[in-house]
Structures are given as structure tokens and as C-alpha cells.
Design brief:
Layout lengths: L4 E2 L36 E3 L6 E7 L4 H19 L4 E7 L4 H12 L2 H13 L1 H4 L7 H10 L5 H8 L2 H18 L3 E2 L1 E4 L2 E2 L7 H11 L1
Parallel strand pairs: 3-4
Antiparallel strand pairs: 1-5, 2-4, 3-6, 6-7
């Protein structure tokens, strides 16, 4: 069973600028952007009437997050989300600068394209993030184009330091308050649930226990 991928040094996320972790309420809005900015709004799928809320913190370059996205999440969507048993909320938790840029792009898309883009990146992680002799940023730019982000828009997103800082601040808040030690990290109805990455059965059992 895959273990959660441990956190890297936070200084990698901001071009050498360290952002100290600060305690805050869970799921707090990030600092640095107007409250009206939709890019840092919640990214949630599933019925609002579902009695169970699942929260996942993930990184686009986390191999264990990719395993979950490829092997477990399709069944979670089919059996639990689409059947209105759970509501599912995504939280960006980038472990390096490439993952951070990927989160910036995903957050800049219309909210209804967010999950599809995240799923695409995790499904094809080996192709754009870790393939030999490639530039991951250039490959990310190509995949973003498939979702309507042209070259100029991608470059604008990459240069948006307010969005970059907002994602880092949100990550620091959640990481400190929730004591997140690695990704993917899950909470079901705001209770941490370890050991649900390896199989759908493990995940479904945790959901059943919460209900």
C-alpha cells in the first residue's frame, strides 16, 4: 500500500522565500487576493445534499496522489460521488515549484474545468512531470492548452505572484492547523482518515464508518 508522500522543504515553493506556517481555522481563505477572487474559492464536486464530506489535500507531482487518482478515484466517483453518497472537496497542497505552477493553472480555469484538469495531470504525471529529457513547465503548458489556456495566458498565470502567494499561504494555514505530514491527506466529515490510498475497499470502509 502506498504511503503518503512526505512534504518537501517549503522554501522550494517560493523561489527561496520561506513562508512560515501559521495556525488558522481549517480551510481558511488564503491571504493576498481579494475575497471576491474566485480562483481561491472551494473546488467541490458531488451533491450538496450528501451527508458525508470528503476532503483531499494533494500535490500534482506526488506519486501517491497519482496512484490514488488513477486506481482509486474512478471508483470513488462512480460508486460514491455520482450516487450522491459523498461530496468531495479538493485542496491544492503543492510539494514543489512545478506542482505549484500546476495548481496556479488549475485554479485559473473555470471552476467546472478544475477537476478534469487535475485528473488529467495526475493521470499523465509520468508524461509531463517526470519523463526524461523534458521541460516539465513546457509540458504543463501543452496540457493546459488542451483545456483552453493559450500560451500568453499561461505565461500571465506563471507571472501572477499574488496567486502564487495565496496558494502557499493557504497550504501553510492548512498544514499547520491540521498537522499534515504528507500527501495525499484525507479527512471525512473533518476527521482525519489514514490508510485509504491503497485501494477502493479501504476508502469505502472509511466512508461507511463515517456514515
Amino acid at each position: 500500500m502506498p504511503a503518503a508522500q512526505p512534504l518537501g522543504r517549503r522554501t522550494l515553493l517560493a523561489s527561496g522565500i520561506a513562508f512560515a506556517a501559521a495556525a488558522a481555522v481549517p480551510f481558511a481563505r488564503a491571504d493576498g487576493l481579494p475575497a471576491s477572487d474566485p480562483r481561491m474559492g472551494p473546488r467541490v464536486i458531488g451533491s450538496p445534499d450528501a451527508k458525508i464530506m470528503v476532503d483531499e489535500w494533494f500535490s500534482m507531482t506526488c506519486s501517491h496522489c497519482a496512484h490514488f487518482a488513477q486506481e482509486v478515484f474512478p471508483q470513488v466517483r462512480k460508486n460514491l460521488i455520482d450516487t450522491e453518497k459523498i461530496r468531495y472537496r479538493f485542496h491544492d497542497f503543492p510539494l514543489d515549484q512545478v506542482a505549484l505552477l500546476a495548481s496556479m493553472v488549475s485554479r485559473s480555469l473555470p471552476a467546472d474545468r478544475y477537476e478534469a484538469f487535475v485528473t488529467d495531470l495526475l493521470d499523465h504525471q509520468d508524461e509531463w512531470a517526470f519523463a526524461q529529457n523534458i521541460d516539465p513547465v513546457a509540458e504543463l503548458k501543452k496540457r493546459a492548452a488542451l483545456f483552453g489556456v493559450n500560451s500568453a495566458e499561461f505565461d500571465r498565470i506563471n507571472a501572477d505572484n499574488a496567486l502564487r502567494e495565496a496558494i502557499i499561504n493557504k497550504q501553510d494555514h492548512d498544514g499547520a492547523f491540521l498537522q499534515i505530514q504528507g500527501t495525499p491527506y484525507f479527512r471525512i466529515n473533518d476527521v482525519p482518515v489514514p490508510n485509504v490510498v491503497g485501494s477502493y475497499d479501504d476508502f469505502a470502509k472509511a466512508v461507511a464508518k463515517a456514515s
